[in-house]
Design brief:
Blueprint: H1 11-41, H2 43-48, H3 50-53, H4 56-80, H5 82-90, H6 96-106, H7 110-146, H8 152-193
Helix pairs in contact: 1-4, 1-7, 4-7, 5-8, 6-8, 7-8
Length: about 210
């Protein structure tokens, strides 16, 4: 709660951070989608178009596709994890209005808002990569099945186990960050409410 007069992060920095978040999520999603398509196309066909895929125009298209997929996966993950997120929120806020009021209160302190935004950034990446891991497991399983590889059964089992561990890890990280964020928000709002008057204003929901 110290140094409450830190300057607020600029809109350009915030927009850049959001772009990077979506792109990080989208790269994993693109790898999963590409893996599935490669498995459907088959080994021989993929060898034939490998030169095209490594070209500069293909890289530009891939970057754009990764960003678009990142948006889709982020929204899908937010929707799927909404029920457990609401349960975590109710531990510290009995109603949506009390949560909105807490968010409204800390707007008076830019450094608290910046820390909250940083926590939400990590939370979004974890929830996005939860779905990315599931998609990558599917893609890797199809590739092992369709491509000529040795020790196919061992690789298939390794893909399932590793994917399950990574998915569980991202879910637990998302849950921990989300719960900690709500807890800190409740504490910070209580402390901040005693230092500044409530000036109103709308606050976006935590996504």
């Amino acid at each position: 709660m110290s140094q409450l007069s830190k300057p607020e992060v600029s809109g350009v920095v915030a927009a850049t951070a959001m772009f990077v978040e979506v792109l990080v999520i989208g790269i994993g999603a693109l790898a999963g989608v590409f893996g599935c398509l490669a498995a459907v196309a088959g080994y021989a066909n993929m060898r034939g178009i490998s030169t095209i895929l490594s070209s500069a125009p293909a890289s530009a298209v891939a970057l754009s596709a990764a960003y678009a997929l990142g948006i889709v996966v982020d929204r899908a993950a937010d929707h799927l994890l909404a029920p457990p997120r609401r349960r975590l929120r109710r531990r510290y806020f009995s109603t949506d209005s009390s949560y909105d009021e807490a968010r409204k209160t800390i707007l008076e302190f830019p450094n608290l808002v910046a820390m909250s935004d940083y926590a939400r950034s990590r939370m979004r990446i974890c929830r996005g990569w939860l779905l990315d891991c599931l998609l990558l497991v599917l893609a890797a399983s199809l590739l092992v099945w369709r491509f000529p590889v040795q020790h196919r059964l061992i690789l298939f089992i390794a893909v399932i186990v590793l994917g399950g561990v990574c998915s569980a890890g991202f879910y637990l990280c998302w849950r921990s960050i989300t719960a900690t964020g709500y807890k800190k928000l409740a504490q910070q709002a209580t402390h901040a409410a005693g230092r500044v008057p409530n000036q109103g204003g709308d606050v976006a929901a935590n996504t």
